[in-house]
From TrEMBL:
Protein species of origin: Methanospirillum stamsii
Molybdopterin dinucleotide-binding domain mapped to chain residues: 7-106
Organism classification: Archaea, Methanobacteriati, Methanobacteriota, Stenosarchaea group, Methanomicrobia
Name recorded for this polypeptide: Molybdopterin dinucleotide-binding protein
Molecular function GO labels: molybdopterin cofactor binding; oxidoreductase activity
Top-level taxonomic group: Archaea
């Protein structure tokens, strides 16, 4: 059954992200490493999400389309993970609890299957965030 699900998001650095960042944030390697959400296989099954398909991730402050994959690391049901970077930054709340650092982990997100949506490139997301949403990046289309 396809349905939205509320999960707890964590974002953190990863080896895959670090290696890809050496190639550049506009590289195909960075796109492949960071434009994904790792999810528990049971959560994906319950939500009717197939691996390697797009999903919409919505938090209190924004949303982003990313590709759903089974967790490379062990993820308990109810927990999901997007590697830190442009895609995660679209949904990280600005709250800092007076630390000066945004709340990168432990915030609720709603996940919706989005099989017909496009995962945008880092460049497209940045241009959209600054009000230049008409920009497209043919390399990642």
């Amino acid at each position: 059954m396809t349905q939205k699900q509320t999960l707890t998001m964590i974002t953190q650095r990863s080896i895959e992200e670090g290696i890809a960042m050496e190639k550049g944030k506009n590289s195909r390697e960075y796109f492949n490493a960071c434009s994904v959400i790792e999810m528990n296989e049971l959560d994906m099954l319950r939500m009717g999400i197939e691996e390697n398909t797009p999903v919409r991730v919505r938090s209190e402050c924004g949303e982003v389309i990313v590709k759903a994959i089974y967790g490379i690391q062990t993820l308990s049901p109810g927990i999901c993970h997007i590697r830190q970077g442009v895609w995660a930054n679209q949904i990280v709340p600005g709250r800092t609890q007076s630390t000066g650092v945004p709340q990168y982990s432990g915030f609720p997100v709603c996940i919706f299957p989005a099989p017909n949506e496009k995962v945008r490139s880092a460049r497209e997301l940045i241009f959209q965030a600054v009000g230049m949403g008409g920009f497209t990046d043919a390399k990642n289309s």
